[in-house]
Fold this sequence. Notes:
Layout: E1 5-11, H1 15-26, E2 30-36, H2 40-49, E3 54-56, H3 59-62, E4 68-71, H4 75-85, E5 94-97, H5 103-112, E6 118-120, E7 122-125, E8 145-148, H6 156-168, E9 172-175, H7 178-204, H8 208-216, H9 220-226, H10 233-242, H11 244-267, H12 270-293
Parallel strand pairs: 1-2, 1-4, 2-3, 4-5, 5-6, 8-9
Antiparallel strand pairs: 7-8
Helix pairs in contact: 4-5, 7-11
Amino acid sequence: xxxxxxxxxxxxxxxxxxxxxxxxxxxxxxxxxxxxxxxxxxxxxxxxxxxxxxxxxxxxxxxxxxxxxxxxxxxxxxxxxxxxxxxxxxxxxxxxxxxxxxxxxxxxxxxxxxxxxxxxxxxxxxxxxxxxxxxxxxxxxxxxxxxxxxxxxxxxxxxxxxxxxxxxxxxxxxxxxxxxxxxxxxxxxxxxxxxxxxxxxxxxxxxxxxxxxxxxxxxxxxxxxxxxxxxxxxxxxxxxxxxxxxxxxxxxxxxxxxxxxxxxxxxxxxxxxxxxxxxxxxxxxxxxxxxxxxxxxxxxxxxxx
Length: 305
């Protein structure tokens, strides 16, 4: 691999940033790793695991001397963090992020870059329902996809640098317009997570005895469908706020289809119900088949931090 990062800074050292650092270190592609986190317990864990060499609560201090910076905080904190530490960047530094919302975040971060420093929006689609640096592992990105969201302001050598970093840890790179990315992710990630959360909430609101029976006899299908409802609530609150326009649009589409399904069940419309289920099955089967024949398949779940 044609690069070596002398000093890597990770703002928000957790599952995503920690796994990237471990993956690069395992391949001998990084020298020093500096982790930034508000909690001393997080830095202590990262140091004990060998994920980072040094830790600090100050992002300004953490980026000093770094040639490559990854911001893997919750999405609502990405732009404020970049604005805060931008003045401490060394000339030539490349900054990227790992947020699952891109549009306004990319524009704000690009605007914050001092002369001679570069921002490239990124979103590694990999992770688990468990977050935190203690869950990090070096092979997280093998077989995953990472979406980069360059704009007309993106400098080609910075884009290539970010591409090389993610490819080095096993991720396949795709590029999207930032706003288009937000529409796609609202459908493929944000809507399913909200559905999972809402199903659990609906069942939690059942009458006491019925609720106990429902959860007592929940089968593997329920556990599979609601697994992502174990994701970090803070992260998903922030995603909803940052990508609200695209998410509201997708929720409206889902609500319309749910109303139609409700009508078919009320009417006992056997043919219509079969048609809905058969179409859904066929679509999912084709998606799975396409993923099986692709050179890389996405890692399980969506992430964060």
